[in-house]
């Protein structure tokens, strides 16, 4: 299950930072992870703890929602009326 989570997290980072290189995305995934959240992970595998960024995910979701709201408001406020050019001439 870790692979889809890492891929999803990397996609979020890339979406927010389109100019990031693969190395920058990798560094960002590692440095923004939360260590030691899951108790007693299997010793023979890499811990999933590093990917649990609950608060950061909430922040991204809130920002995404706010941006969508602003876009919708802007679109409503900037709708131009249609004009019949023949009637103007």
From TrEMBL:
Gene3D superfamilies on file: Peptidase S8/S53 domain (3.40.50.200)
GO molecular-function terms, A-Z: serine-type endopeptidase activity
Pfam families linked to this entry: Peptidase_S8 (PF00082)
Matches recorded under InterPro entries: Peptidase_S8/S53_dom (IPR000209), Peptidase_S8/S53_dom_sf (IPR036852)
GO BP of this protein: proteolysis
Domain Peptidase S8/S53: 1-40
Transmembrane segments: none
Stated name of the protein: Peptidase S8/S53 domain-containing protein
Organism: Leptotrombidium deliense
């Amino acid at each position: 299950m870790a692979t889809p989570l890492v891929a999803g997290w990397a996609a979020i980072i890339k979406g927010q930072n389109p100019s990031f290189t693969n190395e920058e995305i990798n560094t960002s995934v590692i440095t923004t992870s939360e260590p030691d959240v899951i108790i007693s992970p299997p010793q023979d595998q890499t811990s999933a703890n590093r990917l649990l960024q609950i608060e950061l995910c909430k922040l991204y979701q809130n920002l995404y929602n706010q941006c969508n709201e602003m876009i919708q408001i802007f679109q409503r406020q900037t709708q131009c009326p249609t004009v019949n050019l023949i009637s103007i001439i």
